[in-house]
Amino acid sequence: MRSLAVVVVLVPSLAAARPAARGVSAEAGLGAGGVIGADAAWVQPGPALTLRVGYDLWSWLTVGVAAAASTHEATVPAPPVGEYLQLYRGRADARLTARLDAVALYLEGGAGAAMMSSNVLAKVGVVEPGQRFSPVLAGGGGLEYQLQNRHYAVGLGGEYWVAPSFTGLQGVEVRAFLRYTYGGSR
Amino acid sequence: MPTYRVGDTMLRTLLPWTILAAAACGTDPQYLPGPTAVEVAVDPMAATTATATVTLPIVPESDADRTAREARATALGVELAYVRVGDLEVSIEWTLKNLTDTEAVAKVKVDGGNQFFYYYPLAFVIDPREDPTPPSLAGGIPIRVPGQGTVSGVIREDALREAALDLEAITRGQVNPFAALLNVNEDDPTIPVAGVDVPQDAASGLVRFDITLEAAQHMILEYVVRVRDQRGLLHDQLLAAPIDEIVEFAPAEYIPPPPPPA
To answer: Is the Cβ pair A129, B28 closer than 8 Å?
Structure first.
């Protein structure tokens, strides 16, 4: 009976140890991204920056908009040599989160648009003359850790994306992120 | 109960997006692949010099641009070109392949034209026995290429900016080409154009590039013109642009004036 009382007391106190804020959140991530598949030879992996603003509809579902920018060396047949391109992606997405105390797993997916900074990949047929934009589909998941402060969480995430109009250019990205959530606890 | 100031909240939310937007709005380069490769000395009797020409696909001038240009031209007292120095930052990236088994020396030269004149160094040679050929506007450095080897290089933006200023000085400024090409205008606030000293950004910009390969052995030159468009002058379709949507520049070959009578 005494042990049951301890459990009854401990479980709520553990859950309360890491309250997470719920509401509007801003998330910034830093990592690396690269192209996979048939075009991987033309685009080298490079650093990536991601930003996301979300709104928690419930504690387990967030909708938001996200943007990502990455820079890559273009290794197309010379010339040119040593040129870089930037890939910008923006999307609306939804994120499902399963939380267990301070740790949470999430899955997310969304759709939007991608922009390529230059036409350097035209040489290998990835883009047409004058083409800079493509629809983009993206999905991924990750792990986050809620800090003692209910507003802050850190995490690791990964993502796969495909840009159909860039002749199916596709890539992956991994990142570490920090999120700040405004508002009260969940 | 935490309290938030609206300004702080907006700043925290908007700052990262502002940084991302600023990064995305820089002047990104566009690449115009050379329409044809330049090949020389295919056989012992073939030419050892060959030239390819690329003219930039420029959209027609808007009424607002024309009005502003004419107003500035009136103020300066000299006709101004539609495309001026600084409007397009151009560099030329090239790769040279020696198709023989022995090392050889090659030169990659760049000449060109603005909307008024193009520069042809041999036009300054009246008597080949006496007149030295002026150098090209850019490039011309001997390059050793190993047998079956490949060498890549670039004619940089600053070199082609200087070339545009030199061309303006040689043609409308009537400066001797040797003097114009030896003088580095980088720090000069003005250059002479038709008897008037005009700011560098009023000088005509290059819109045509003549890329020459000189080699005594069989070599092939591939190149790409890299353009950072500062004024939105390039057609979106680049070299695939419909002919009726771009300006057909027709610069005249610059013929130097005859020497004054003795």
So the answer is: no
pLDDT tens readout for residues A129-178: 889 999 999 999 999 999 989 899 999 999 999 999 999 999 999 999 99
Whether residue B23 and residue A86 make contact (CB cut-off 8 A), yes or no, is yes
Which residues have C-beta within 8 Å of that of residue B175, sequence separation ≥ 6? B169, B192
H-assigned helices in chain B: 6-24, 63-76, 157-171, 177-182
Write down the pTM of the prediction: 0.84
Q: How high is the ipTM of this complex?
A: 0.80
Tell me whether B224 touches chain A (CB under 8 Å).
yes
Q: Which of A69, A80, A115 sits opposite B226 (nearest CB)?
A: A80
B142-196: pLDDT as tens digits: 999 999 999 999 999 999 999 999 999 999 999 999 999 999 988 888 988 888 8
Rounded CA separation B255/B249 (Å): 18
Which phi and psi angles does B121 have, rounded to 5°?
-55, -35
B138 forms beta bridges with B110
Residue B93 with chain A: CB contacts under 8 Å: 78-81, 83
